[in-house]
């Protein structure tokens, strides 16, 4: 491992020198932002007595991110921060052996936005920070309440009344000091479109459908990866829109005339549909009844819940007869419009889901948070097939479904 690190250091030192020479070319050859970045790098080098410390340059350049060309900065960060120290190599040794040094390097230069600090997002943050992500920004305008103490392990009773993002960030940093953790106590719904430009990936948790639609469309415009997830008691979902994603899958192939196998790498490219598209009319008529029965009714039940949230501005209260009637009416309309058998989403199942809509259960948060965090790591490392587009989990049945929605939504 030490020899690998030394070889990487020499290679990346050469890369940094080449990049620095490239940045010195005339503006017309590399675009805007060249002078600002050069001046900033020179200042950092002087302040550190000529030592181009990866950590120092990374932290300093992140402060400049909003002022200069994001594409140019990303190139610079990729070139310099691929230098992994011996301490980092020891810390992430198992991960590096699992998915390789290059994949680990991609993760450690990634910037992620996590919205909403509840039980599910706590699990996501924990897993990503321990994996060695470059930076995470957590955003939540709400304050800690007594109810939060049940599923959120980054807050304590002493934090009641304080902002969730701020108090959580302090404890998240303690998990891995190498990860840059930033807290934002503003409402994500009030953020401008440009706010999302500086992140590689945006993950929303426990969001309303309108916010999910808006931010998903922004991410599509800026070519940012998008996730949205939520738990409803024993149930939960993960929605993923990568727009277009290229990745590598490994396959074990038999060697002809030998009782041996070799690993081959295949490059794949998947296309995704947007959240807005998923909320529109679907065409299930091409799917056979046999295949439809294999699809979890949770898929349609969650979409009906989204429809209710869109129309009423809130989740249903199952102790309110008018809410139950409205929910069942939306169910009937949705199933009829999408040509789905009424028997696939029963009254009992839909009302059970709705009754858990405002409930968080720690085991379900842990399962869904683990699946989502691992999928994010797969996407950033470009290793393995990610969720496309929807993952639903039924904790009562122990059932999980991965659903490729591009077949029915267009």
From TrEMBL:
<keyword id="KW-0833">Ubl conjugation pathway</keyword>
<protein>
    <recommendedName>
        <fullName>Ubiquitin-like 1-activating enzyme E1A</fullName>
    </recommendedName>
</protein>
<dbReference type="GO" id="GO:0019948">
    <property type="term" value="F:SUMO activating enzyme activity"/>
</dbReference>
<keyword id="KW-0539">Nucleus</keyword>
<dbReference type="InterPro" id="IPR035985">
    <property type="entry name" value="Ubiquitin-activating_enz"/>
</dbReference>
<dbReference type="GO" id="GO:0031510">
    <property type="term" value="C:SUMO activating enzyme complex"/>
</dbReference>
<dbReference type="InterPro" id="IPR000594">
    <property type="entry name" value="ThiF_NAD_FAD-bd"/>
</dbReference>
<dbReference type="Pfam" id="PF00899">
    <property type="entry name" value="ThiF"/>
</dbReference>
<dbReference type="InterPro" id="IPR045886">
    <property type="entry name" value="ThiF/MoeB/HesA"/>
</dbReference>
<dbReference type="GO" id="GO:0016925">
    <property type="term" value="P:protein sumoylation"/>
</dbReference>
<feature type="domain" description="THIF-type NAD/FAD binding fold">
    <location>
        <begin position="92"/>
        <end position="399"/>
    </location>
</feature>
<dbReference type="InterPro" id="IPR000011">
    <property type="entry name" value="UBQ/SUMO-activ_enz_E1-like"/>
</dbReference>
<comment type="pathway">
    <text>Protein modification; protein sumoylation.</text>
</comment>
<dbReference type="GO" id="GO:0005737">
    <property type="term" value="C:cytoplasm"/>
</dbReference>
<comment type="similarity">
    <text>Belongs to the ubiquitin-activating E1 family.</text>
</comment>
């Amino acid at each position: 491992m030490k020899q690998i690190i030394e070889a990487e250091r020499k290679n990346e030192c050469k890369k940094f020198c080449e990049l620095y020479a490239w940045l010195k070319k005339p503006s017309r050859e590399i675009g805007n932002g060249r002078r600002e970045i050069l001046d900033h790098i020179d200042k950092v080098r002087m302040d550190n007595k000529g030592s181009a410390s990866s950590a120092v340059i990374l932290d300093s350049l992140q402060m400049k991110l909003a002022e200069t060309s994001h594409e140019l900065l990303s190139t610079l960060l990729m070139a310099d921060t691929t230098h992994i120290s011996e301490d980092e190599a020891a810390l992430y040794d198992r991960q590096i052996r699992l998915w390789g040094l290059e994949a680990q390097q991609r993760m450690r230069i990634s910037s992620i936005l996590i919205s909403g600090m509840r039980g599910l997002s706590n699990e996501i943050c924990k897993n990503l920070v321990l994996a060695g992500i470059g930076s995470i920004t957590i955003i939540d305008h709400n304050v800690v309440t007594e109810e939060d103490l049940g599923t959120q392990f980054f807050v304590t009773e002493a934090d009641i009344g304080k902002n969730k993002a701020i108090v959580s960030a302090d404890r998240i940093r303690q998990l891995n000091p190498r990860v840059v953790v930033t807290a934002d106590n503003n409402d994500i719904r009030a953020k401008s479109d440009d706010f999302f430009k500086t992140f590689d990936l945006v993950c929303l948790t426990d969001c309303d459908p309108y916010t999910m639609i808006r931010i998903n469309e922004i991410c599509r415009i800026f070519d940012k990866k998008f996730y949205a997830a939520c738990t409803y008691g024993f149930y939960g979902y993960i929605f993923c829109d990568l727009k277009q994603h290229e990745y590598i899958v490994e396959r074990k192939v038999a060697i002809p005339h030998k009782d041996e196998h070799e690993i081959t790498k295949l490059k794949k490219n998947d296309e995704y549909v947007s959240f807005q598209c998923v909320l529109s009319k679907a065409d299930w008529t091409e799917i056979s009844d046999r295949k439809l029965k294999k699809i979890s009714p949770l898929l349609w039940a969650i979409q009906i819940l989204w429809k209710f949230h869109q129309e009423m501005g809130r989740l249903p209260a199952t102790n309110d007869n008018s809410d139950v009637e409205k929910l069942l009416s939306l169910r009937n309309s949705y199933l009829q419009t999408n040509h789905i058998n009424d028997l696939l989403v029963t009254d009992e199942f839909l009302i059970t889901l709705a009754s858990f809509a405002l409930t968080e259960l720690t085991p379900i948060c842990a399962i869904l948070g683990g699946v989502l965090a691992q999928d994010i790591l797969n996407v950033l490392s470009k290793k393995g097939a990610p969720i496309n587009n929807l993952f639903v989990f039924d904790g009562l049945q122990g059932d999980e479904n991965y659903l490729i929605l591009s077949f029915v939504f267009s």
